[in-house]
Amino acid sequence: EPEVTQTPSHQVTQMGQEVILRCVPISNHLYFYWYRQILGQKVEFLVSFYNNEISEKSEIFDDQFSVERPDGSNFTLKIRSTKLEDSAMYFCASGSLAGARTDTQYFGPGTRLTVL
Amino acid sequence: AQSVTQLGSHVSVSEGALVLLRCNYSSSVPPYLFWYVQYPNQGLQLLLKYTTGATLVKGINGFEAEFKKSETSFHLTKPSAHMSDAAEYFCAVSVPGNDMRFGAGTRLTVKP
């Protein structure tokens, strides 16, 4: 069964460094998402991406964050200058039904980001 | 605005007992509701979802949920818990713009 994959599974970085988290969505999906889950807290929406542009973003997704689909298969989340509070599990998700709230989002296993 | 509230951050049941995980929603538009499960060190896996139609929704692993508009609830149940059901369970509502609003999660522990 197709699945969303994410790399790396765990990333440790120093405060102020740039990180890129990578995701390979399910191949025929059209909508892509990033969520984060700070330890012990709820899963929070960051951004959605469709047709090579951001569809929606939350207040968390500030200028330090960017997303890209560089080659038609990968979907990346970049944090330009990491802060301690960026430490979290980051989940990528994809969905097949563009514009449908009923769409099931398929989640990857997550990347645990630790900022020291 | 759309949101969900999960009552009980931790639920503990004995193996074979009924599982009941509570979720209440708030939505200004017809809600589309989801339950996801997260096993340790894994991503979120869809258990079931309600969009329209039958209000009792059956999902994987013997779980089901009933949409009750009058109570703004979407509680998750399973008649008989297995040890393998131990995980974190998240209720979520889909909002216009396609993102999801998740509840805080309920950690289910199953005792032998």
Briefly say what this structure is.
Chain A has about 120 residues and is mainly β. Chain A is about 0% helix and about 50% strand.
Task: Set down the secondary structure blueprint.
The complex is a heterodimer of chains A (116) and B (112).
Chain A: E1 5-7, E2 10-13, E3 19-24, E4 31-37, E5 43-50, E6 53-57, E7 65-68, E8 75-79, E9 88-95, E10 106-107, E11 111-115
Chain B: E1 3-7, E2 10-14, E3 19-26, E4 32-38, E5 44-50, E6 56-58, E7 64-68, E8 73-78, E9 87-94, E10 100-102, E11 106-111
Parallel strand pairs in B: 2-11
Antiparallel strand pairs in B: 1-3, 3-8, 4-5, 4-9, 6-7, 7-8, 9-10, 9-11
Number of helices of chain A: 0
Spans where pLDDT lies below 50 across 5 or more residues of chain A: none
β-strand amount of chain A:
over 45%
Secondary-structure-based class of chain A equals mainly beta
What's the helix count of chain B?
0
Number of strands of chain A: 11
Q: What portion of residues of chain B is helical?
A: under 10%
Count of individual beta strands of chain B: 11
The CA-CA distance between the termini of chain B, in Å, is 41 Å
